[in-house]
Amino acid sequence: MKGDRVEIVIDAGSGTTRTYNVTATRAGRRVNVTHGRGVIEVSETTRGGSTVRTARFLSNRVLALVEHPAADEPVADEIVPTLRSV
User: Fold this and answer.
1) pLDDT greater at residue 50 or residue 83
2) Partners of 17 in the beta sheet?
């Protein structure tokens, strides 16, 4: 859903950290997190399942991975009108 966000904090070496954000930028997109074989992958995907962008991180470098879900109420461009029967 638009507004979903994942924040990734990694160890950049010599005691410094870097923060990356992957955000669902348009209506109908979502952010998926997968991990396996030492790699964490965060990707923004469309309703149809096509990947828009992907960020990959070595799991031994990731210090924190925080998922921030979107608000419960839909944004104006995500509201689908319903037909009312009289």
Assistant:
1) 50
2) 11
